[in-house]
Amino acid sequence: MAREHYNHGGLLHLKGFDLNLLTVFEMVFLYTSVSRAAAALGTTPSAVSQSLQKLRQHFDDPLFVREGKGISPTALGVCLHEQIARGLSLIDHTLNATLSAKQRRKFVIFAPCCLALQLLPATLAALEPLGAGYELLHYSSYGDANPDTIAESLLTFRKVDVVFSPAAVSAHAVQCHPLASQPLVLVCRDQHPRMTQCCSESQLASERMALLQRANHSDVCCDSLPATRVVLRSDSFISILETVSHSDLLTLLPREVARRYGALFNLRVVETTFSLPTSPLYLTYNKSSLRNSEFRSLLDLLLASMPGASVPSA
């Protein structure tokens, strides 16, 4: 993400200026009285007068002139008020937005698209007891991050709270939970000319396949299969589905994904005379995150929805 470029010269100029003087100016402008402004600020009229004197010297303008029993701003004073009021409004909005963000429980999840299709509905259901007090953010990719180390990198640099991945993450600072492995099924387009009955190992060896390219995982599936000709690898789950639906290629999908989305892409499951590999699933997060009560409550709800998973002591 590109960073906004600030005027560093302006920042250095502000370093020598007491920004509290602007607050004093605004109070005097609003109350049209030094004494009433001092009372509102919880200080003395003398201190307010000294602040105004510094501003007069800085802007080379009286800023306020006496008018009857009160004071009235000069033309420059009115202009200054308009600028200061706009700036203070933005600052106030920023502070309130930051406070609101802290009060709102935000849960950032990283999961490849294929896993997210299965996990996000279950995750939302698990967090439902929190009502409107949380926000779920999901990423399936992250810039130019190395796919082989993305899970560890995202957790190390605190870009996400939880990573769902098909490969275990081994690092001292993280906790990795193995979850239930997903059974895979062989899938083809509905009108495939040869996949009319159960597929044998010899028949599969004569077919062409498309496999989802996932870090540290697609090769495992390929090695667990009979000798096959893989003609397409893609990290895009939708691209695999679309390609298989318009060709005679075969692919492997988690059984639940095939059940949910097979009909949408005119795909069907092909029974096999041999065993297919399974796809492992892991949930990983920073151990230190358990010290945060908000994170722990979210994680407790999430893991409670997954049989066999539990949160260790912080």
Automatic annotation (TrEMBL):
Residues 17-74 form the HTH lysR-type domain. It comes from the Bacteria. The keyword Transcription regulation applies. InterPro entries: LysR-type_TF (IPR050389), LysR_HTH_N (IPR000847), LysR_subst-bd (IPR005119), WH-like_DNA-bd_sf (IPR036388), WH_DNA-bd_sf (IPR036390). Keywords: DNA-binding, Transcription, Transcription regulation. One of its GO terms (molecular function) is DNA-binding transcription factor activity. Belongs to the LysR transcriptional regulatory family. This is LysR family transcriptional regulator. It comes from Edwardsiella tarda. The lineage of its organism: Bacteria, Pseudomonadati, Pseudomonadota, Gammaproteobacteria, Enterobacterales.
